[in-house]
Every structure is written in structure tokens, then in C-alpha cells.
Amino acid sequence: MEKIYQILEQNRLEKYYNGFCNVGVKDERDFIDGINDETLVNMGFTQVEKNRFKKMKEAIQRFRAPQQEVYKTSSNMQKSLKTFVLRYTYPHCAEPKEIRDMDPAHNTVEDLMLRICYQEGIGNSKAVCLYTVEGMPLTDDPFFNTWSLTDRHIENGNELYAIFTPKENLVVNLQVPKRPQQELLDISGEDIVQCHIMLKGDYEVKMDLESDTIKDLRQKLSNESGIPENVLHYKSNPVGGTLKAAGISAESPVHFYLTSFPEDNQDYHESVNFFYNDITPSVQQTQKGLSTFYSTLHTIKYKYSGDGFKKVIGYIRKLSGCNPLAQSLYQQMCKNIMGTKTQKF
User: Fold this and answer.
1) pLDDT for 166-207, tens place per residue?
2) CATH T-level fold of 78-170
3) In terms of C-beta density within 10 A (0-12 exposed, 13-18 middle, 19 or more buried), how is residue 64 classed?
């Protein structure tokens, strides 16, 4: 029943906790199929509170997968679809937690993030970052968070690692791109250009190599693939205006990668930026303490990094149980690969 109170509290409806208990609410599913407008009126809900309850109910429905379909065979035997189960853990978590009622084909990574916050009773001041069990970040780019669990290759039985961080750390001047509407583009052109988009596959686009530019190719590829144009980025730096001048031909594929971060802002992790004090710690720290920490980390990076640091990282992994921490340090100290901002948390 503590979870019921937390749900109501998050929606500023906690004063009705006893009332819901009296009408028989025992878990969040009862809000969906056991409470109607008449119940709310009898409990004294105002119109504003009814709107909050409606929003809460929609959120609960969003977090839950559709009821498992049941199929009947000719012998009247029934079988249900296989249950999709995910496990997650986080710092100081006694044992892995389970999520059982999500639909991997329809629920997105963003849904999963919200569901974990909801399940853990995380308030509005914090958000969650997700990592693979090995410690690699899953939620760096808000564009990929709009993909389904299936598209992000999050599979039944996977275990994830969660880190809760103040929301201001995730505030970026980005808008999640929307899928382009089908436009009547000029499809003239006799040259078939083969394009490969990371994680999405191959596409063919009709172009005029003599006159079309990379911008034209991105626009047509966006229309063909359904991927927003501003997250499609050409892997090479074109040296000329036209496709032909950029060295693009019908014989070799053109590679595009996906990111919602602007091209001039993708090197956050280069140079010493990773060691700047630009995030809010989950546990309050003094400025002097943070300065000492970042300065020490920076010094270790440039004086003691390399394969010899692997044993230290092994100790850190074993003592902390935090694979994202160990993975981030391994990239920094042993591989000279700067981490992302999500890894910095």
C-alpha cells in the first residue's frame, strides 16, 4: 500500500489515500478498472483533481503492457504469450528489481525510464540514466530513447543498471526530433545512391550526382527512411558542393550515423571538458571538494593512465559493484576514450 500512497503523492492526490483504501484499491491496476467518475464525485474530487486523476491513470496504463493475448487451439487449450521480464539494479540496491508488464514492441526506452522512476517512487526533481550490465550507457541521446525496447535490442531477461541524477543534469537545448511528414519531393535523378544508416539498414535514393548536394541527399533519405533529417549525419566531411564533388558515386555506399546532438557539439568529451565541474552531484558536495576531485582525476588521467591502471579499475569494480563507474574509468584511463556526459554521472 506504500506504493499506492507514493503514486497519489506524485500526483498531489495523497489526501484521498484513505478514501481509495476504503473502496478497495489494493494496487495500481485498481485505479484503471475499479474507479469511475461516480466514485470520484462521491469522494469529493474537484474538476482539477479529476484532471490529475485522469493524467495519473493514463500514466499507469502507459507503463503497463497490453493484457497478454490468449489463443485457443482446436482442442480448447489456451496458451499466453511469453512474459517479457527485465531486471535492474542501482547503487545500494540489495537485490535486482523486476519489471514484468511491458511490451517490448511498443514501449519505448523513455517508457522504461519513467516506469523505473515510478516504481522506485523517484520524485520530480530526479531522473534516471540507464546502462547495460557491462556499464555502457543506453540513454545518452534523447532520440534513441524514443525507440522501442526491441529496436534498442533490450531483450527478455536483460539486466540493466540505473543511476538516479538531478534533472538539471539532463537539461539540454535539444528537442526530440519528430518523424518527417511525407513530402512531395523532387525525385528527379537517374543515379541510384546506396545509403547505409547505422542501426537501421540500407536504403536506395534517386539523386542527380552532378547537381544534388549532401543536404539534398539527407532530405530525400529522411523522407525515404522516416528518420528526421536533423539526426542524420554524413560520416565524412564533404569537400565539394555537389555529391560528385564530394566523391559520392553509385558504386559505393554512403554511410550516415544517427544523433540528435548538433555536429558542432558532439565533441563534449574531447580535451579537458570531461573534467569540468558542470553537473550537480546527487549527494551535496562543497565546491572545494569537487575541485579537488576533478583536479585529481585529471592528474591521474595524464600521469598514470594506461594498461597498468586495469588492476585499480578491477578493485573499484569489485568494491563498488558499479559497472558503469568501472567502464567509464576504463575508457578514460586505459583506452584514452573520453566518456559521455551520462557516464560522468
Assistant:
1) 888 775 544 555 554 544 455 566 888 899 998 888 898 888
2) Ubiquitin-like (UB roll) (3.10.20)
3) middle
